[in-house]
Amino acid sequence: DITPNDLWAIHDLLLVGYDGYFMKKDSPGHAEAQEAAAELARLLPHLHPHLPCREMLTTAMARYPPVPRGPSEAYLLPQPAIVEAAEAAWRCLPAAFTVASFTASFSLAALQDDQQAQQAKDPNLRDHSVL
Fold first, then answer.
1. Among 28, 32, 53, 106, which one is most buried in terms of CB atoms within 10 A?
2. Distance between CA atoms of residues 44 and 47, nearest Å
3. pLDDT tens, position by position, 15-29
4. Which run of H or of E encompasses 76?
């Protein structure tokens, strides 16, 4: 059975997707990865299967209206919106996950520093009893 705490990796989907860590920065593919992460963040208040998460994500995302990216008419959320959505996606779960819940985690620091991003590989939950 899937429990709400099983959804902890949504945090990483948002941040790693937005960072496009494996993409060449400023490439069309990188821009597309950022747009997809922003779209996921925008949709999560409607799609997240755990009601408290939908509520918390709605509150978080209301502070950040999407802004046009350019002539492609794609919309991008600012980096703080993605970070806030990712943090809300952890806090809203029954275990109220934080960076301390994992052996490694992709965080705001990893968005700004490739070395930090590299160190965030292979996160493991410290307390598996919460699953």
1. 106
2. 5
3. 999 998 888 988 999
4. strand 75-76
